[in-house]
Amino acid sequence: MAAAFAALVSLESNLRLIYNHPKYSFHFEEKQIQSLEGSVSFLIDFMKSYDNSLGARKQAAEALEMRIARAAQLAEDVIESHIVDQIRGGKTRSSRFLLDLQKAIEDMDYMRRKASNMRARSGSEQQRQTTYSSSSTVAAAQSTPLTSTMVGFDDILLQLLDLLTGVPSSRRVIPIQGMGGIGKTTLARNVFQHKNIVEHFDVCLWATISQEYSLHRILSELVSHLRKSNSGTVDELQERLYKSLCGPRYLIVLDDMWNVKALDDMMLLFPDTNSGSRIVVTTRHSDVAKHLGVSPVAMSFLDEDNSWHLFCQKAFAEQQGCPHELEETAKKIVAKCKGLPLAILVVGGHLRKSSMALDYWVHVAESIMNHTGNDEHCLNVLSLSYSHLPVHLKPCFLFLGAFPEDETIYVRDVYKLWIAEGLIQQGEYPSVEVAAWHCLWDLYLRNLILVYGWNHLYGIYTFKVHDLVREMCLKIAKEEEFLCVFQTPSAINRERRVVISGEANHEAMASDAPIRCLIWKRGRYDINNLYDLKLLRTLSNIATTSTSGSIFQQLNLRYLNVDLGYKIRPMLYYLPSSMSLLWNLQFLTINIADQSKVIAPYAIWEMLQLRRVEVDMICLIDPLPVDRLEQENHLVMRNLRLLFRVENFRLSDEVCKRIPNVIELRLSYCDEVNWYYCPRNLSCFNQLKVLWLKFDGNPKWREFVTSLTFPSTLEVLRLRGSGVHWEDLTMMVGSLPHFVELQLLQDSVTESIWNPKEEKFLRLKYLTIHGCDDLVHWNADRCHFPVLKCLYLSYLSKLEEFPSGIGEIATLKYICVRYCSASSTISAMRTLVEQVEQGNDSLRLDVFFRGDEETLESFKHRVEEEGLTSPNLSLQLVRS
């Protein structure tokens, strides 16, 4: 049960912190804490090893798990309440606290005895299979990522391609209709990314509509994909979009359409210019498809052969087909999935990570109930996969229901919330962040998340959760009292994790509510109306115009995401020194208006539990001098991994000692050039991987930047306004052993000729040059960046020629040229065509060229004259 395991893991972490907190000394009876630790450790081991999904004991086990959850939650409430009281008023031990703690200890001890008896009665002390051990999880991490190849829909794919690229020339709407999980979005995505479609249409846009329909959100999404400003009213965005689509031949995909009203609203946005434009609508509702007055592309269930083929792809991805002894049972499992792709994928993903013992597969086959092919049947199959998840993954999986339907979810947000909520056990991993990464990867291998974006540093970058999978998350989370999502709550009784997607009801959040986690979606909530929720540990998406109110009185917070005057004029915001009383704050995110600043007190250096500090612009006071620091070396922020954006940050010896384990830094300098900032100390950060440096464009910064000593661990560097020369750049980072990505933004380099040197940038895989408008000649070939994979060039108006030799780099897969000079753009297209003609089919080029009507006509004429077309080339012309 997710709630029980999560409560135990969180309690275990707190008990450990009581004795090891780097700042506070808390007053507890040692024997009492040791007794609790013993019970918690036993119960965690019990939940990892006990299989409650088999036989008649399931109901009794679930009842016990519910009682374990409540006992662990009560114990954590008593302990954290006492800690907050100590911090607020210096209280030690009241008689009420002693009684409450003793009751919590007795309850946990009773749960331990009950669990021991149940384990003995089951006659099985053998730990069930789990992927939590380091060996199995590392193997998972090394597995080949699963593909999203369509299986069994080749004919439909070809039919849809014909409908999109054929006659008539008038605008045409094509609905794709079928039940949830049948593959509508996968089909649309495969078509959307098909090379014939990319070549045929001038503009391709994708918007997810979803059940929670917001016209402003959808317009903003579409306009942003056109690289235009997505701020403004609905009318302004609608006009901006409509005008942008009046000229080009466009393809619009409207995914997950739920009702006719939303469909009618959307149809008004897209002009019919007789250019062959197309609109694809995916929906599970037949009335939406019928409303369009055209026959839909109907998605049917997979036949027996294709179902088996898809299942084998997923269940036996690391083997050569299905073992003979499992084949009969495996085919029974596939048959019960009723040809539904999502069900086959999820069950296949589960079995891929499970035991290959025949009796286990027989149990899975018997567990899938026979229903007709509908959403309820799919939920039944999905819930089977949840039931057999390793217990440490269950809380992580259920928490994904906190994110809105169809939302693109950033992995960094998931990690922060998982860790803050105490859902992650570090175990044998080097850090809790690494443990969280392995949990997400495991969910991916089980096909429970849909990956949308990858990052070369961190792997999965963004993902989505299928509607039906999310529906299952919410259903189980509510049943297990793990998480509740409200539109507008009238009262909060037992709920500890609350997500509010609508308007807030202030009375529902009274101070005696048991809320531990409070998340707002679809908007920001005014914190000034929030009661003092003494034990609140996660507070997300809230707003305030003042830092002196109740926001920093929530002393138990582990996660805080707040807007400070986000909609008003630029201001200075002074954080109170009392913020250091937040004894376990780990994640601090502050959003402010442009040109505003947050001034942090010295006390922030005493917040030793901080892991990530993310502020749009923050000023930090220097920490204590060296002599004092040596006497107080316990005041070291060993957990801090990310810090941004710090203005005029002094890299003093004291700073280097305070944050020794920082991995990512984003710094901004706009003061007078001053050696006071200690640039040479940058090398002291011997775990630093990612560094962003922004300067105000003063050419005097060049000497400062070239004096920086970069640590050998650095992998990514982003520069802006630094004014260095190309030779400086080579000397600074060209020889770093792990350096893989270089981003050069506006005025980062101010020199007209770049002559790269051989034996430099030997590990560089990703190169971005944006707005370095002095660059005229770039004399590069395949020897200079031997392992380059992706190249992004933008706003280089003086660049005369794209270096054709770069196209010969064997590892190069992608080039993007955006709004550069006509000559460099044409030469890049010429390079691509030549490479494809020579058999290099893996290289792709995206071109965006902008100009007035005369410039665009001249450019098109040159392209046609030279025959610069290729399936691997995408060209978009934008009128300025």
UniProtKB/TrEMBL annotation:
Domain NB-ARC: 170-319
Segments of skewed composition (Low complexity): 124-136
GO biological process, one term: defense response to virus
Pfam families named in the record: NB-ARC, WHD_DRP
Cell compartment(s), UniProt: Cytoplasm
Gene Ontology molecular function, alphabetical: ATP binding
Protein name: Late blight resistance protein R1B-16
Residue ranges annotated for the Disease resistance protein winged helix domain, each copy included: 403-472
Matching Gene3D superfamilies: 1.20.5.4130, Helical domain of apoptotic protease-activating factors, P-loop containing nucleotide triphosphate hydrolases, Ribonuclease Inhibitor
Source superkingdom: Eukaryota
Key words of the record: ATP-binding, Cytoplasm, Leucine-rich repeat, Nucleotide-binding, Plant defense, Repeat
Family: Belongs to the disease resistance NB-LRR family.
Species per Swiss-Prot/TrEMBL record: Salvia divinorum
Phylogenetic classification of the source organism: Eukaryota, Viridiplantae, Streptophyta, Embryophyta, Tracheophyta
Region described as Disordered: spans on this chain: 115-136
UniProt xrefs under InterPro entries: Apaf_helical, Disease_R_plants, LRR_dom_sf, NB-ARC, P-loop_NTPase, WHD_DRP
Record's keyword annotation contains rRNA-binding: no
Any one Gene Ontology cellular component term annotated for this protein: cytoplasm
